[in-house]
Amino acid sequence: MQALATTQRPALRADETLRGILLMLGAMAVFSAMDATSKFLTADYNPLMVAWGRYLMQSVLLLPLILWAGAKRALRSIAPAQQTWRGVCLYASSICFIGGLSQLPLAEASALGFVSPMFTTALSIPFLGEKVGIRRWLAIAVGFAGVLIVIRPGTAAFNAAALLPILSASFWAVALIITRRMSHRGDPPLTTLVYASYVGVMIGLPTLPWAFTMPNAEGWLIITAMGAMSIAGHYLLVHAFQRGTASILAPFSYSQMVWAVILGYVVFGALPDLWTWIGAAVIILSGVYVWHRERVRRGLAGA
After folding, report:
1. Phi first, then psi: what are they for 70, rounded to 5°?
2. Rounded CA gap, 260 and 28, in Å?
């Protein structure tokens, strides 16, 4: 019996890891669809309005779940300050990314967003007390060289809006680090979603006098769908991090580029140019190498 238990436990851990990977892939597909919807809306509405509308409908759609789980249970957090800061970072990331989407092709904005693992590695020093070796710093430098290939500063192809997805990636990286720290605290996914949603609604309110336009029926329907996709994506993401470590899950976030290219072509009739493909490849390979070195470092530390 003891031998049987010993052989089963690694299988169970592997099964949980596989579930985490599948959840991560699902989250990236949903986020890509949400990004395409956001870009579609920016043709008629201010990006600030699009971001706030998404969080508003996300909050409304969460109400039945809050009532079903019980308001006290849904709102009670072991780490309310971290939940609040995570919500602030996610909302800031959303505003910056949607602002970039309004002026950039979907695939280009997504490619630039892939610098978030580099930011995560760099920010792990002050936030998590980790040490980053020379190899990972070199990989980060190469990743940012890939960013320069995509945005091509100093040329006619340069668009200042390309800086917004990069800024978005920095906020997203901080949110991911906070998510990693909270994943072992015990807050249920619903509590994490509730905090993110209502924090976003509250901090977005001051922007409405300059950004709000009353949507028509079709607009409300699309905004509602975007809110539903946001809930689904974040729910999958939180569950993924509860089943797999960030070092294992991180490379699968790059599947979002595949969906961005497909949706960019199907919905907007746009394909990335050669330089975007090259720059995206450099960014992704650098990110994968950072992930590889992270796994090597943790393996040596555990040896």
Report:
1. 100, 125
2. 10
What string of DSSP letters covers 201-236?
A: HHHHGGGHHHH-----HHHHHHHHHHHHHHHHHHHH
For residue 200, what are the CA distances in angstroms to 30, 91, 150, 153, 220? 19, 5, 30, 32, 18
- Give, as one character, the DSSP assignment of residue 253: G
Give pLDDT tens digits for 278-299. 999 998 888 888 777 776 766 6
Which of 65-69, 160-164, 189-193 is predicted most confidently?
160-164
pLDDT tens digits for 40-76? 999 999 999 999 999 999 999 999 988 887 877 778 8
Report d(CA 56, CA 220) in Å as an integer.
11
- Structure-token pair, residue 231: 């809930």
Would you give the distance in Å from CA 241 to the centre of its chain?
A: 12
> What is the identity of the amino acid at 29?
A
